[in-house]
Amino acid sequence: MSEVKLFGAWFSPYVKRVEMSLNLKGVEYEYIEEDLENKSPLFLQYNPITKLVPVLVHNGKPIFESSVILEYIDETWEGPSIFPKDPYDRAMSRFWAKFVEDKCSDLLWKACWSAGEEREKAAKEAEEGLKILENEIKDKKFFGGDNIGLVDLVANYIALWNPILQDVVGFHPLTQDKFPNISKWADEFCNDSFVEKYMPEKEKVRLWLKRAVETGSLY
Amino acid sequence: MSEVKLFGAWFSPYVKRVEMSLNLKGVEYEYIEEDLENKSPLFLQYNPITKLVPVLVHNGKPIFESSVILEYIDETWEGPSIFPKDPYDRAMSRFWAKFVEDKCSDLLWKACWSAGEEREKAAKEAEEGLKILENEIKDKKFFGGDNIGLVDLVANYIALWNPILQDVVGFHPLTQDKFPNISKWADEFCNDSFVEKYMPEKEKVRLWLKRAVETGSLY
């Protein structure tokens, strides 16, 4: 029996962050694809609180929330660091990871899934966040510098899922014209040989999002 | 010149978390009360990104976001730990801190500041979160066990600000009847001799919130 289990869903950017972190560290683990429409008793036993993926189980103890799991992985296993070693740099990485999530990704998602005034408001707020992010990534290959780190992993939604969802709904708050640096980073990230191995196929994501938009349900 | 500066606002629960953490550790620092209606050039130079308090400046380098600052303080200075030492316990503390913020405090705040359907929705969601928290704190003095830790600091809004705001707006999603364990914790927390020293005066908070509700502005 493996001592590390990851409960996930193939289409979840949150799960992919954890998968990539485990693989960056070279941790062996058992991956369990969870049917989110019909959650298994084992999964609900491990995560009765949020009932969401990802859930990492280490020696029988469950951990939830991708941001919490990434900290745990970096603290627990040797191998390449996901967080910078220097406390100040680590603080800045945590700040940018939170910024990407709260001020960019969540708003981009919301802008694509809403309409009218609500869409306009979300798109405007996303644009404000993206402008700041655009400046942060200029002159750098990855947010982590030469190597992929925490902020890159957290920004994975912007790189792969968002462009596909934008096309599916026909609304484009993030374009190469407006955000050339972020777009360049997204290309670098998606084409990175390590990242490529663990990200879902774009066509599969497109079909999933198309169906989700048509049915109004992600599952 | 002090090597540690904290830019804050006396009424901010986020700032109080940081103040209490610095004092738990025994860190000497200069506290600078920032006028949020008329922010100082020095403050904006340190935090041009979010322009929010708290900002901790250590040896000239600024750190923003209270959750990020608390991690930095615990990593940087000796003294009583804010986060548990064991990696799994630390992960669970991070999870509960996020849960308190996202699923309880933010929703309680929103329920008090909104009306009609929006209020009902926020209050219902807050109640769901609080039920889970109610179970987590049963049989414990503090979330951190016998001593105040990360989750207690992050939950400070629930202990002091929320009851006052509830009275000011005349809407009570969190009552002792419904949540006896959380209410007991809130009493323990507010009456703790260390906490008492750093929390704002309740009457001052009441007047500030009353004015905020009347004018629709926090400043």
UniProtKB/TrEMBL annotation, chains A, B:
<dbReference type="InterPro" id="IPR040079">
    <property type="entry name" value="Glutathione_S-Trfase"/>
</dbReference>
<feature type="domain" description="GST C-terminal">
    <location>
        <begin position="86"/>
        <end position="208"/>
    </location>
</feature>
<dbReference type="InterPro" id="IPR004046">
    <property type="entry name" value="GST_C"/>
</dbReference>
<dbReference type="InterPro" id="IPR045074">
    <property type="entry name" value="GST_C_Tau"/>
</dbReference>
<dbReference type="GO" id="GO:0005737">
    <property type="term" value="C:cytoplasm"/>
</dbReference>
<keyword id="KW-0808">Transferase</keyword>
<dbReference type="Pfam" id="PF00043">
    <property type="entry name" value="GST_C"/>
</dbReference>
<dbReference type="InterPro" id="IPR036249">
    <property type="entry name" value="Thioredoxin-like_sf"/>
</dbReference>
<feature type="domain" description="GST N-terminal">
    <location>
        <begin position="2"/>
        <end position="81"/>
    </location>
</feature>
<dbReference type="InterPro" id="IPR010987">
    <property type="entry name" value="Glutathione-S-Trfase_C-like"/>
</dbReference>
<dbReference type="InterPro" id="IPR045073">
    <property type="entry name" value="Omega/Tau-like"/>
</dbReference>
<dbReference type="Pfam" id="PF02798">
    <property type="entry name" value="GST_N"/>
</dbReference>
<dbReference type="GO" id="GO:0006749">
    <property type="term" value="P:glutathione metabolic process"/>
</dbReference>
<dbReference type="InterPro" id="IPR036282">
    <property type="entry name" value="Glutathione-S-Trfase_C_sf"/>
</dbReference>
<dbReference type="InterPro" id="IPR004045">
    <property type="entry name" value="Glutathione_S-Trfase_N"/>
</dbReference>
<protein>
    <recommendedName>
        <fullName>Probable glutathione S-transferase</fullName>
        <ecNumber>2.5.1.18</ecNumber>
    </recommendedName>
</protein>
<dbReference type="GO" id="GO:0004364">
    <property type="term" value="F:glutathione transferase activity"/>
</dbReference>
<comment type="similarity">
    <text>Belongs to the GST superfamily. HSP26 family.</text>
</comment>
